[in-house]
Structure formats: structure tokens, C-alpha cells
Design goal:
With 369 residues, the protein is mainly α. The protein has 18 helices and 3 strands. A 3-stranded antiparallel β-sheet has the order 2-1-3, with no helix packed on it. The two termini are 31 Å apart.
Length: 369
């Protein structure tokens, strides 16, 4: 049987030369290390080799080379480079030095609060890639060099694509999370828009997010609660949203589940006073996703009932189908739903996982889905 350690490290070594992004406009993120880590977690290490070959056939950009060294001790130096993707190689070099000189948990605790306000980086993939690297490191008694390099790259991508949202969220309100979602007004989106046009509208909304009615109020609408319980509220709610919003391109709302599910890997390694601010930043990202990508509620209030009525197989079968499907989004989303359902069972998780498997095309060798 292939061990988790062997599967993860073999995958990281075989994916080592791929850059952070792919696509003509750098619009697609390198999911290879994250999806491979998920396959290893699911016990499908033996399938990783074939999956990596399929994934490598998609055209990726080269790894960025360092240009001008960044100094971690000079706040002006590194802050000026936040969000500058031309410095991605410099960021990777900086984090490689940091991890060579200190335990990885110390580096994480130092940089997590510096980056958390930029969760929008790579449509959340800076934080998600970092979190999967954290799960890999924490799940291995003696991590290998490739695992430390992957944490450096997760943090580097996050820093290089760092993008903040206006305002800040906190939990000082009176509403439960589901009620806060229900109370959020939406700008209508024309039903006639095709996916490319809808994505343009969504990007435009994101650029003016603080001018959209309800945004500022929603940031402080949710009542305080245990951070772990809030993460469960988020993943269950967004699994339901994914299930009913079939009019939306089937990728963006996945991150409403995969981001908080990934953040859960990281919280045990952070001081307690970082937990609620981290979850608040995730809520702010959720508000932005909803206001940017949804133009109405489309059955959100009855998503749980919709899930209960759906004919859904057990998670063991859903997991097997995800592995067979091979799309990186499907693999990550199904595992996140499986894990979240294990913590607090809810029918929306399995129904959403099945919906993703049906809505996202099976990738073809050498083609970008």
C-alpha cells in the first residue's frame, strides 16, 4: 500500500516544475499539489501517478524566477511587493529562506495574520494551497523537503496575488449565518447572459463591491460563535448555495466550501486570538462571492429540503466517482464535503458533491476544462 508520505512527496516532485498558473490570461490556478494531497488523504495514493500525468498534459506557465530579493525583516520591502505577481519568484525565495531558518509553524504564525486580509488572492487559492501544505506537514512526523517547498509556494502565491477587500468583518451582530445570507440583497443578473458574459459582470461587481447595497452591513451582521462552529455553518450553507445556483458557472461557489474547510486545517496551528479574525475574513470573502456571482436567491431558503429529496449515493461512492472523474475541482470539493459532513452531518454536503460531479465536465487529456 502506498503511504500518504510517499504519495504526497512523489506527486510534489513530479509537479515541481509547474508554475503557479495556467491559461492564456493567467486565469487558471495550478491545482496539482492540492488535488494530489487530497487523493493521498483519501487513500488513493496509487492513482496519483496516472492523475499527475493527465494533469501535467494541461499547459502551465513556467515557474517564476526570482528577480530582486525581499527582506522579511524590512516591512516596507515586503509590503510594497504584496499583490505584485511579477515578484512571485522573490516571494518564493523569501519563504524558502524563512522555512530554512525556523520551524514551519513559526513561519506560519508570523505570516498568516499578514496575509489573511488578502484572501481573494487567486480566487482564494493562495490560502487554500497554503492550508493543504499545512495538512501535509502536520500529518507527517518528519516532513520531506518537497513538503516544505510546497508551503513556501503556497505562501508565495498568496502574497504575490494578494488582494484585499474593502472594510473588515467581525462577529458583533445578532443574526445566525444562514439568516445573514438570507438578508443579503442581490443585484439582478440578466438570465440571458452566457457564462463568459456573466463572468465579466461578476468581475465588475467585485471591483465595486463596497458600493453594492448590503455589503458593509453584512460584514458585521453575524453573531459571535465558536470559530469551529462558524466554519461548519459556512460550509453547510455554501454547499446548499452551490446546489441551488445552477445558473452560475460551476466553479466560483465551490470556494464557499473549500476555503473554510481548508482554513480548518490551519486553526489548530495558530494562537487562539487569531481564530475569530481568520473566520471573519472568510465571512467577508463569502459576502463578496454572493454579491458578485449571484443575482437572486433561487431556492436558497429550501436548499436543505432540496438536498433531502435528491437521490444521492453514500459518500464512499461519491468519493470513488470523484477520483474516477479526475477534475481537480471535483476531487477537492468532494473531499471537503465528505470531511465537513463527518464533523456535522448535513444532507447538503452529499447533494452538492454530486451536483459538482454532474456539472463540471470530465477533463480530456491535454485540454483545459
Amino acid at each position: 500500500m502506498v503511504t500518504y508520505f510517499d504519495a504526497v512527496n512523489e506527486a510534489l516532485e513530479r509537479l515541481d516544475d509547474l508554475g503557479f498558473e495556467r491559461g492564456d490570461r493567467n486565469e487558471l490556478v495550478n491545482h496539482g499539489p492540492m488535488a494530489a494531497e487530497v487523493l493521498a488523504t483519501l487513500g488513493h495514493g496509487a492513482e496519483i501517478g496516472n492523475w499527475v500525468e493527465v494533469y501535467r498534459a494541461k499547459p502551465h506557465h513556467d515557474r517564476p524566477a526570482p528577480r530582486f530579493p525581499l527582506d522579511a525583516s524590512d516591512e516596507n520591502s515586503w509590503r510594497a511587493a504584496l499583490g505584485d505577481f511579477t515578484r512571485a519568484g522573490d516571494w518564493e525565495q523569501l519563504f524558502a529562506r524563512e522555512l530554512a531558518g525556523a520551524p514551519w509553524r513559526d513561519v506560519l504564525v508570523q505570516w498568516w495574520p499578514r496575509l489573511i486580509s488578502g484572501l481573494l488572492a487567486g480566487i482564494t487559492h493562495g490560502a487554500i494551497r497554503t492550508a493543504h501544505a499545512v495538512r501535509s506537514l502536520s500529518g507527517t512526523p518528519k516532513p520531506g523537503p518537497a513538503q516544505l517547498t510546497e508551503l513556501a509556494r503556497g505562501l508565495a502565491y498568496w502574497a504575490a496575488r494578494y488582494r484585499g477587500l474593502p472594510g473588515s468583518a467581525d462577529f458583533r451582530g445578532t443574526a445566525g449565518l444562514a439568516q445573514a445570507v438570507a438578508d443579503l440583497p442581490r443585484e439582478l443578473m440578466a438570465d440571458s447572459l452566457h457564462p463568459p458574459e456573466a463572468r465579466v459582470v461578476s468581475r465588475e461587481r467585485l471591483h465595486r463591491i463596497d458600493a453594492i447595497p448590503g455589503y458593509a452591513e453584512a460584514l458585521r451582521a453575524v453573531a459571535p460563535k465558536d470559530p469551529q462552529a462558524l466554519l461548519s455553518d459556512m460550509t453547510a450553507e455554501f454547499a446548499g448555495l452551490y446546489l441551488v445556483h445552477t445558473e452560475i458557472y460551476p466553479i466560483p461557489l465551490l470556494h464557499g466550501v473549500t476555503l473554510p474547510a481548508a482554513v480548518r486545517f490551519v486553526l489548530p496551528h495558530l494562537p487562539g486570538d487569531m481564530h475569530l479574525p481568520t473566520v471573519a475574513a472568510v465571512w467577508q470573502l463569502h459576502v463578496a462571492l454572493l454579491l458578485s456571482f449571484t443575482g437572486g436567491r433561487r431556492g436558497e431558503a429550501t436548499a436543505r429540503e432540496t438536498a433531502l429529496r435528491a437521490e444521492v449515493p453514500p459518500f464512499a461512492e461519491l468519493t470513488a466517482r470523484a477520483v474516477e472523474h479526475k477534475d481537480e475541482h471535483v476531487i477537492k470539493f468532494t473531499e471537503a464535503c465528505l470531511r465537513e459532513n463527518g464533523l456535522r452531518p448535513d444532507p447538503r454536503y452529499a447533494a452538492a458533491a454530486q451536483a459538482a460531479q454532474q456539472r463540471i465536465p470530465v477533463p480530456e487529456l491535454g485540454l483545459i476544462p
